[in-house]
Write a structure and sequence with these properties.
Radius of gyration of chain B: 18 Å
CATH class of the largest domain in chain B: Alpha Beta
Shape of chain B: globular
CATH superfamily of the largest domain in chain B: Stage V sporulation protein AD
Largest sheet of chain B: 13 strands, mixed
Shape of chain A: elongated
Number of strands of chain B: 15
Largest sheet of chain A: none
Number of helices of chain B: 10
Oligomer: heterodimer
Number of strands of chain A: 0
Order of helices and strands of chain A: HHHHHHHHHH
Strand content of chain A: under 5%
Structural class of chain B: alpha/beta
CATH topology of the largest domain in chain B: Peroxisomal Thiolase, Chain A, domain 1
Distance between the termini of chain A: 80 Å
Order of helices and strands of chain B: EEEHEHEHEHEHEEEHEHEHEHEHE
Helix content of chain B: 25-40%
Number of helices of chain A: 10
Distance between the termini of chain B: 35 Å
């Protein structure tokens, strides 16, 4: 087998691979082994070659690797469709209802707390902040006692989305990684779950702020 | 009564399986080292055209196996078993390489002793008559190991003088029950030694006692002396660990002139690696490229190759655990002239 033969064989194989959905299993195996053999050979030449020659073999090898990937594909697709057909169904309706109920209850609790603060003479802004603080405390507290994960199992998004879920994500990380110490454990990994929320939350708030700013200015100049 | 076991931990392969082919693929830094022109393939960069270092490491392992097979004129389908391991979580380099080769696969983890562990197991399988041909591969990559075990690769941290440089490279051997090549006559399976070292930047001194234990047990098991070997070479103790091992051996009354270490041989002192090389790839590429050549030329008639592994994980380090270490040894003999 020399490089010219391999080059021609790659071309011939293109057609075969294009119709690989109808290829018999035996034929597939034969092609796979052939590709393996060629790959090995070209790699061996490439390792020995220098300069332009090496580039040349490298190109040839990449062609072979591309064909290898394409050949593996149909088998995977057929299998995955079978698996998909037999996969256990997600309980979407139940999940949505539970998320609504639990999430709604948490928000209702928040509203009740807010109203109590307002009635007791806090200004609206202060009452809002105090409510958030209390909810965060409750989320953290329940996490510490080991109840929040039980709630999350049933509620899904319902207990993740509210601010109590945010508290849960940080406290659970802190509890988990305390085992690796306060520096490399808690310190390094406190925001493992909440980190993306903070980073992209901040980023989006800046973007929205900018949009708001320019719309306001546009309105201003139009008027 | 076990018939093939000598003494406490040593196995005798009376059929003497042979390493018929070996290949090493390394990164640029290793290529610039003292053994640079002996490797089968030196890559231009540490990515090998891949998007991630993890993929690059896997390719190095795969290429080394393919080259070893090609040198012997074999195909992956000819392998009865494939034994491989690396340093990454869940030995992913080995898993993906085995996927490519499509051969019956047993994954190994012995940290940097994996090559020696693989050779021991291959010897057992071949001696037991369970197969004709076995492939053994290991790999490591400086950058994948750094990001898993230590810090982000671009972090401006100062490495202590005891730190070793993880070798970027993959090494593979093809072993056959019958054939001509370097003979595998004995294997000594090591025990865990933990002398209470917990500094992951000082693996050399953690592993030296394990190496000593295996070498001592081996010599006692077979009733041999150090002089029966042309070379006793440890895997990756590095410059500091090697010095320590020499000191320990001397204390026990052994001569140390024939002692060497792959981690010392692989880099030049001015390559700024501090204490030399480490990683699965270290002993594997030195074996495949350097030691095999010396055995084939007859410069060495018999060597004892001792892979040394520090079996730590990033989590165990952070939790303050000490480092359990192991060393497995295999006796390799020059091909007989027939």
């Amino acid at each position: 087998m020399d490089k010219q033969a391999i080059r021609e064989r790659i071309k011939e194989r293109e057609a075969l691979i294009a119709q690989n959905f109808v290829l018999a299993e035996q034929e597939m195996t034969r092609l796979q082994q052939e590709l393996q053999k060629e790959h090995q050979k070209v790699l061996y030449w490439e390792a020995k070659a220098k300069g332009a020659e090496k580039e040349h073999f490298n190109g040839l090898r990449l062609e072979i690797e591309r064909q290898q990937k394409r050949l593996a594909l149909p088998e995977q697709i057929v299998y995955q469709s079978t698996a998909l057909r037999l996969a256990p169904k997600q309980t979407v309706v139940k999940n949505v209802v539970m998320a609504f109920l639990v999430g709604g209850t948490i928000c209702l609790a928040g509203q009740v707390i807010l109203n109590i603060f307002l009635q007791n003479g806090l200004a609206e802004k202060e009452a809002g902040a105090a409510t958030s603080a209390l909810l965060v405390f409750l989320g953290a507290f329940l996490t510490g006692l080991g109840y929040y994960d039980e709630l999350g199992k049933v509620a899904g998004a319902g207990s993740i989305v509210p601010i109590t879920g945010f508290a849960n994500s940080i406290v659970s990380s802190a509890m988990e990684f305390k085992r690796e110490g306060f520096v490399y454990g808690v310190g390094a990994r406190l925001f493992t779950v909440a980190g993306p929320v903070i980073v992209y939350g901040t980023l989006v708030s800046i973007l929205v702020g900018l949009i708001y700013f320019f719309i306001n200015r546009a309105n201003f100049t139009l008027l | 009564m076990a018939q093939k076991k000598m003494g406490k931990q040593t196995l005798q392969f009376s059929s003497a399986p042979v390493i018929t082919s070996a290949a090493a693929v390394v990164g640029p830094k290793e290529g610039q080292g003292p053994l640079g022109d002996k490797y089968d393939m030196v890559c231009d960069d540490t990515y090998l055209g891949e998007k991630t270092w993890e993929n690059a490491e896997q390719k190095m392992m795969q290429y080394s196996m393919e080259l070893a097979l090609e040198k012997r004129g074999l195909l992956p389908a000819d392998l009865d078993f494939y034994l491989a391991g690396d340093l990454l979580n869940q030995i992913i380099s080995a898993n993906y390489t085995a996927r490519f080769l499509n051969a019956p696969f047993l994954g190994l983890y012995g940290a940097c002793s994996t090559m020696a562990e693989g050779l021991c197991l291959a010897g057992i399988l071949l001696e037991g008559g369970f197969g004709e041909r076995i492939g053994v591969s290991v790999s490591s990559h400086h950058d994948t190991a750094e990001r898993q075990f230590r810090y982000p690769t671009e972090l401006g941290a100062q490495r202590p003088m005891t730190a070793q440089w993880t070798v970027t490279g993959g090494g593979s051997c093809v072993l056959e029950r019958i054939g001509t090549g370097v003979k595998l006559t004995h294997a000594t399976i090591g025990k865990i030694k933990d002398m209470g070292v917990s500094n992951s930047n000082d693996l050399g001194s953690a592993m030296a006692p394990a190496a000593l234990d295996t070498i001592k047990t081996h010599l006692e098991d077979l009733g041999r002396k150090v002089d029966d070997y042309d070379l006793i070479i440890t895997g990756d103790l590095g410059i500091f660990g090697h010095t320590l091992l020499k000191e320990l051996m001397q204390k026990e009354g052994y001569p140390v002139e024939r002692l060497s270490d792959c981690g010392v041989l692989i880099y030049d002192p001015n390559q700024d690696t501090h204490s030399g090389g480490s990683g699965c790839g270290c002993s594997a590429v030195v074996l495949a490229a350097h030691l095999m050549e010396k055995l084939h030329k007859g410069e060495y008639q018999r060597i004892f190759f001792v892979g040394t592994g520090a079996l730590l994980s990033p989590i165990s380090v952070f939790q303050g655990e000490t480092i359990p270490c192991i060393a497995h040894g295999v006796v390799l003999e020059a091909p007989s002239n027939e």
